[in-house]
Amino acid sequence: MAEHLKLEQFPARIEIPILWGDMDAFRHVNNTRFFRYMESARVKYIELLDLFGLDKDAVSWPILAEASCKFIAPLAYPDSVIVGCRTSAIRSPEELEQEYLLVSSASNLTVAVGWARIAAYDFSSLRKSRFPEKVLAAINELEGGDM
């Protein structure tokens, strides 16, 4: 799967510098940091949808329901990682799936691929809800109309 993915396929991309403190005793980036890198790409995706510009009280907010990561190669300081985020499927008006691609800037090699299930959540009722139609339409537009 990772061999066929290209950053150009991901509408949200962010470059993140590797910090010395991201590494662990084995002298590579600690596995937990990869999830933070994916989180940063997810926030970039939300910015592209302009969800931060909407009234948060009137909109179901996307929350992370499940996440996984396949580690392919180590990252180490000094380097930076380019992280791509895209919605791969809208499973229902309540849930969608996202994919992440993490590429080393120094080597231009894929270092990890990730997956997440994102749910719409209503913080006033404290339960799962539905994404507003305009959010689903914005996702469809950002993804090139393939959803």
List keywords for this structure.
147 residues, alpha+beta, six-stranded antiparallel beta sheet, 2 helices
Description:
The protein has 2 helices and 6 strands. It is of the alpha+beta class. The chain has a single domain, classed as Hotdog Thioesterase (Thiol Ester Dehydrase, Chain A), CATH 3.10.129.10. Strands 1, 2, 3, 4, 5 and 6 form a 6-stranded antiparallel beta sheet that branches. The chain is globular, with a radius of gyration of 16 Å. The two termini are 20 Å apart.
List low-pLDDT spans. none
What count of domains describes the coordinates? 1
Shape: globular
Number of alpha- plus pi-helical segments: 2
CATH class: Alpha Beta
How much helix is in the residues?
A: 10-25%
Oligomer: single chain
**Overall mean pLDDT score?**
92
Sketch the topology as an H/E string, one letter per element: EHEEEEEH
User: In angstroms, what separates the terminal alpha carbons?
Assistant: 20 Å
Count of strand segments? 6
Main sheet characteristics = 6 strands, antiparallel
How much is the radius of gyration in Å? 16 Å
CATH architecture: Roll
The CATH topology name reads Thiol Ester Dehydrase, Chain A
Structural class: alpha+beta
Name the CATH homologous superfamily.
Answer: Hotdog Thioesterase
**Residue share in β-strands:** 35-45%
How do the strands and helices of this protein lay out in sequence?
Elements: E1 12-17, H1 31-48, E2 61-71, E3 80-92, E4 95-104, E5 110-122, E6 127-128, H2 133-142
Antiparallel strand pairs: 1-3, 2-5, 3-4, 4-5, 5-6
